[in-house]
From TrEMBL:
Residues 733-772 are annotated as: Disordered. This is ABC transporter domain-containing protein. One of its GO terms (cellular component) is membrane. The chain crosses the membrane at residues 455-477, 489-509, 529-553, 565-587, 593-616, 682-703. The lineage of its organism: Eukaryota, Viridiplantae, Streptophyta, Embryophyta, Tracheophyta. It comes from Zizania palustris. Belongs to the ABC transporter superfamily. ABCG family. Eye pigment precursor importer (TC 3.A.1.204) subfamily. It is found in: Membrane. One of its GO terms (molecular function) is ATP hydrolysis activity.
Length: 772
């Protein structure tokens, strides 16, 4: 095992410098895997068998194939290199020779799901709509070293199935069914699985190289030297055909960068960095031309075979070449299974069901065309010929599949795979807290610098407004009327500068999206995000508070003195930080940026109104407005702190009309303004700081609760070991298959040659609840 090695796992170990085949021979399965009952042969044995018996290579397994069959274990790539078929192209081979083995392959992931049903809660789609079924009794499996394609017409539930298997269903979805990893319910440890989502959420200001490189730093352990991380990141980028776009910015809201297809490939790069054991891909080829699609998918299939990775990909419209790369197909139509099995069986199933693929047509095109009923009406109008509609064809196929040998075969394979066993997956070594903090702070600092909408535009506007205030209220002086003028300058500055903090909201929403994706993948935690965001924003906030603040302070002639000026800009800075913290909460609760701006502006408007300026504190209606709004409004503490800073120690001539010789002290002014004088201005500043901490803590709690990643190893007990052979016969067969299930005797370990293998009762299960 890698852990036993005296060298760090990421160090260039002797095995990585060996030829490719030696590394598989030296790699091998974990002792757990070797000892576990019913475990398939992987690692060195798989490689060995595949090397010695190259004829065992092939994607289609026989009906009675054991999951221990070496065709799909780690080392398939090695076998490919041996038997001369499907050899890696020279460039890929050169790259593969440098692939750093992240962890020993172990048994790999054998994922099974039975009778998965997903319904969307009432009213989730449209108001008043009843609960709707999205997935209806889906069963299947995905095995190590193979690529399973989930296909079907748009809206059939591909993404929902991926989300269900990955434990990412939203709260509005209800789910039942049994989902097991190697026969047990277990959480997916960090680095075990990765999910490439349909919407490529990336930091738009970074270049391709930077995006992957920072991600490598976040995901890979500290024991791996930085130059190696950089080299690994670049290698992964080149593997995805992005060598030429390496230094191009990703682009997004403001500037155009790489193309949509390239963005998709960058997303795949980021998730492939740690070579996960289970990879979910949602539309990996969307936006790619056929050559790029083939390149990307063949690379993924190669890595899957080589590193015993389980790949589940929802694919829209694969070309013939890409379709040939898939080992298994899960064909869905409107939430039901049309077919599950090997690609060659799919063609056979369609023939036997009366829907043969026309000559020269791509089978995947044929399957999708047959079951897409979205255009039935239009087709019926434009065609006089009497032929089956897609709706009828879908019904025929789904019913035929349910009672066919193919579904029985799938059920039998699920039973076999549930006996896989093996130790729970270990959490992969990750970067330390301090490394993540450093990398995130640096990345965020660069992003804030490059995204003009984050702070620079605000700085420009603040400078402009500061100049306006400074010239309009130029040198307010120390007359009686200057008391009111000073109050107005203070109130306007506080309100406007903090209100304008919502200007950075769109940029922040994008940050939150990236954070959500990375957090769900377990790259780092909420603490790292919050602290790094605060650290990186600090210098900019100081900048945008100090420059305009100092300018308008000087121009308006507020109370002179370095201490007064320092307090003024420090409070401005704290207010901006506080409003940003508030907007962070809004961004996770209301992820749409337009709605977020409206909500944020509304909340600030109410706070401002109750800050004790527009209506003096004692005049505020007690219920709601005074208690609690006045006390939770940060404007109260900011404005009162400013007042104390401004008026304490000053005295003004009294109103000429009342008594020309009298003076008004600053304390009297504060009394008139109903400022709470029981504590100093520094306490006001401390309260603002405390409020900022509270806001960030609330953000932390919300995120912790709502965005929970799927790492941390489970301690759930292994499932009862099932007999690895099919013990069950199905009722009836409408469709005969060319391959009949095996009638091999059950092994002695089974103990029940004729009885049914132990089956778990279908638990009302939410993988999400297990995972989180
Ligand atoms: N969170 C949700 N709330 C309400 N309805 C949803 C939700 N997620 C999915 N659906 C509905 O479930 C159905 C299946 O959606 P899903 O995204 O899984 O389909 P898909 O096959 O991946 O589609 P496409 O190929 O177009 O991406 C759709 O009708 C969609 O409207």
């Amino acid at each position: 095992m890698a852990a036993a090695s005296p060298l760090p796992r990421w160090a260039p170990t002797p095995s990585t410098s060996l030829p490719l085949w030696r590394r598989w021979v030296d790699g091998g399965a974990t002792p757990d895997a070797q000892q576990a009952p019913g475990v398939m042969m992987t690692g060195r044995w798989s490689s060995f068998f595949r090397a010695v018996f190259p004829c065992t290579r092939g994607r289609d397994d026989a009906d009675d194939s054991r999951i221990s069959r070496p065709a799909s274990g780690a080392g398939a790539g090695a076998a490919a290199a041996f038997d001369g078929v499907d050899v890696l192209p020279p460039a890929a081979r050169a790259a593969a020779a440098h692939v750093v083995v992240v962890d020993d392959p172990g048994p790999g992931i054998f994922l099974t799901w039975e009778d998965v049903r997903v319904t969307v809660a009432a009213g989730a789609r449209t108001r008043g709509a009843p609960p709707a079924s999205i997935l209806d009794g889906i069963s299947g499996h995905a095995r190590a070293g193979e690529v399973l394609a989930i296909m079907g017409p748009s809206g059939c539930g591909k993404t929902t199935l991926l989300d269900t298997l990955a434990g990412r269903l939203g709260a509005e979805m209800n789910q039942t069914g049994v989902i097991l990893i190697n026969g047990r319910q277990q959480k997916l440890a960090f680095g075990t699985s990765a999910y490439v989502t349909q919407d490529n959420v990336l930091m738009s200001t970074l270049s391709v190289r930077e995006a992957v490189y920072y991600s490598a730093h976040l995901q890979l352990p500290d024991t791996m030297p930085s130059p190696e991380k950089r080299a690994h990141a670049e290698r992964v980028i080149r593997e995805m055909g992005l060598g030429d776009a390496m230094d191009t910015r990703i682009g997004g809201r403001i500037s155009r960068g790489i193309s949509g297809g390239q963005r998709k490939r960058v997303s795949i790069c980021v998730e492939m960095l740690t070579r996960p054991r289970l990879l979910f891909l949602d539309e990996p080829t969307s936006g790619l031309d056929s050559a790029a699609s083939y390149h990307v998918m063949s690379h993924i299939a190669r890595v899957a075979a080589r590193e015993s990775m389980t790949v589940i990909a929802a694919v829209h419209q694969p070309s013939g070449d890409v379709f040939d790369l898939f080992h298994r197909l899960c064909l869905l139509a409107y939430g039901r299974t049309v077919f599950f099995g090997t690609v060659s069986d799919a063609t056979e199933f369609f023939i036997l069901s009366g829907f043969p693929c026309p000559h020269l047509r791509n089978p995947s095109d044929h399957f999708l065309r047959t079951i897409n009923k979205d255009f039935d009406e239009e087709t019926a109008e434009s065609s006089n010929a009497k032929r089956r509609t897609a709706a009828e064809a879908t019904d025929i196929l789904t019913n035929a599949y349910q009672s066919s040998n193919y579904s029985e075969k799938t059920a039998d394979q699920i039973v076999e795979m549930k006996g896989t066993g093996g130790a729970p997956f270990r959490r992969k070594e990750q970067a330390s807290f301090s490394t993540k903090l450093l990398v995130l702070t640096k990345r965020s600092f660069i992003n804030m610098h490059r995204d003009i909408g984050y702070y620079w535009m605000r700085l420009g506007i603040y400078m402009g407004i500061g100049l306006c205030i400074g010239t309009i209220f130029y040198q307010v002086g120390y007359t009686y009327s200057s008391i009111q003028t000073r109050c107005e300058v203070i109130m306007y500055t506080t309100a406007l500068l903090t209100f304008m903090a919502i200007g950075g909201f769109p940029s922040f929403v994008e940050d939150i999206k990236v954070f959500r994706r990375e957090r769900l993948s377990g790259h780092y935690g909420v603490v790292e995000f919050v602290v790094s965001n605060t650290l990186s924003a600090g210098p900019y906030l100081a900048f945008i508070a100090v420059l305009p603040g100092a300018m308008l302070y000087y121009l308006t002639g507020l109370t002179a003195g370095a201490g007064h000026l320092a307090y003024f800009v420090a409070t401005l800075c704290m207010c901006t930080l506080l409003v940003e913290s508030m907007m962070m909460i809004v961004a996770v609760v209301v992820p749409d940026f337009l709605m977020g701006i409206i909500v944020g502006a509304g909340v600030q408007g109410v706070m401002m109104l109750n800050g004790g300026f527009f209506r003096l504190p004692k005049e505020l209606p007690k219920p709601v407005w005074r208690y609690p709004c006045y006390y939770i409004s940060f404007h109260k503490y900011a404005v009162q702190g400013f007042y104390k800073n401004e008026f304490l120690g000053l005295s003004f001539p009294s109103d000429q009309l009342v008594d020309p010789n009298a003076t008004v002290s600053g304390l009297q002014v504060l009394d008139k303004l109903q400022v709470e004088m029981g504590y100093s201005k520094w306490v006001n500043l401390a309260i603002l700081f405390g409020m900022m901490v509270i806001y960030r803590t609330i953000f932390f709690a919300i995120v912790k609760d709502s965005i929970d990643p799927q790492f941390l190893l489970a301690a759930s007990p292994p499932a009862a070991t099932a007999c690895p052979l099919p013990c069950r016969r199905r009722r009836r067969r409408n469709i005969s298959s060319s391959r009949e299930p095996s009638s091999r005797p059950h092994p002695p370990s089974c103990g029940r040659p004729t009885a049914e293998p132990p089956r778990r009762p279908p638990l009302p299960l939410s993988l999400h609840s297990i995972i989180s």
